[in-house]
Amino acid sequence: MNGRNSFRRYRGIILLFVRLINLTPHFFRSFLWSISTVFGGKVAVTLRYILLKSLAKEVGDNVYIGRFVTIKKPKNLSLGNNVSIHEYCYIDAVSSIEIGSEVSIAHSTSILSADHSWSDSTIEIKYNKEILKPTKIEDNVWIGCGVRILGGVSIHKRSVVAAGAVVTKMVESNTLVGGIPAKELKKI
Length: 188
Fold this sequence. Notes:
Layout: H1 3-21, H2 26-36, H3 42-55, E1 58-59, E2 63-65, E3 70-72, E4 77-79, E5 83-85, E6 90-92, E7 97-99, E8 103-105, E9 110-112, E10 114-116, E11 130-132, E12 135-137, E13 141-143, E14 148-149, E15 154-155, E16 159-161, E17 166-167, E18 175-178, E19 183-187
Parallel strand pairs: 1-4, 2-5, 3-6, 4-7, 5-8, 6-9, 7-12, 8-13, 9-14, 12-15, 13-16, 14-17, 16-18
Antiparallel strand pairs: 10-11, 18-19
């Protein structure tokens, strides 16, 4: 049985557990999240879904979160339906990150929603003000492994980002992009 069918079959039970876990303190759910990222298997994947649904701004149906995924500030993260985020991804939603439905994000990808400034020369760069840059990935997008998506980027519908790309600007619909920085390789 595939993930979609399993989710449909057990959706009611899963959502009941979401309601129950919401009764626990936020710090406890965050602690459970950090522990759950180490484990594999269907039970761990289900636990991560339940915890993320209780911590994030919005999480749709049938969302897969692989092992060792780091999500900073999940309260600013929105995920659609049928999203997969594979192992070792880093999602920093210090601003906001919106990911649509039918999106696959391969392993070791980073998605950011802020940048550092260096305008105040009287203090070290790392202590300069952060610039919030909301990031959006629309429906039906495939992100290859090891991609870096910088803050403020929009990736439009039915697009593919090739493995290892660094996305620094908007990606048009029906486009394959790749490279550093990512450029259009062809229309799809």
